[in-house]
Amino acid sequence: MPSPLRVAVVCSSNQNRSMEAHSILSKRGFSVRSFGTGTHVKLPGPAPDKPNVYDFRTTYGQMYNDLLKKDKELYTQNGILHMLDRNKRIKPRPERFQNCKDPFDLILTCEERVYDQVVEDLNSREQETCQPVHVINVDIQDNDEEATLGAFLICELCQCIQQTEDMENELDELLQEFEEKSGRAFLHTVCFY
């Protein structure tokens, strides 16, 4: 039995897409952590140009209570309170990828900008062990429904990768199959720790 893959899922604010995938992957027994790459955590506000902005040190519980006070009806209706409630059951607060020095075998990002930030961060670090990490981008729109579909796709991908005999050589072919099946294009690169 191969040792379980160490998986990281990354979006911008570590709220919706990465947390949905974190939830599903951990239920399936993966060793998974989730992150955001933004400088701040942003959640939708009363208008598109008025997001709620938090520091990464703010807990999901604190965000929940803050929005509950601001406008319970709005944030119940748009699903933000429900999402924060789920998040705080998974871990206490969002985490920023750039602050994590733990190694992973596989890092999945949810949009191209986040993928670029992850790759840039990994390439700027001093290489110590030369252990490879595969970074794969799966474009997922930042809404409820797409986050769920994207999380299942990520989970299926991780399950297939876990079953490969030789990840280094089989991954490109596997991603090509997934692209054809899902109609999505995946970006893929290898970085080293």
From TrEMBL:
GO terms for molecular function: RNA polymerase II CTD heptapeptide repeat phosphatase activity. GO terms for biological process: mRNA 3'-end processing. Pfam families: Ssu72 (PF04722). It catalyses: O-phospho-L-seryl-[protein] + H2O = L-seryl-[protein] + phosphate; O-phospho-L-threonyl-[protein] + H2O = L-threonyl-[protein] + phosphate. Its EC number is 3.1.3.16. It is found in: Nucleus. Transmembrane segments: none annotated. This is RNA polymerase II subunit A C-terminal domain phosphatase SSU72. It comes from Propithecus coquereli.
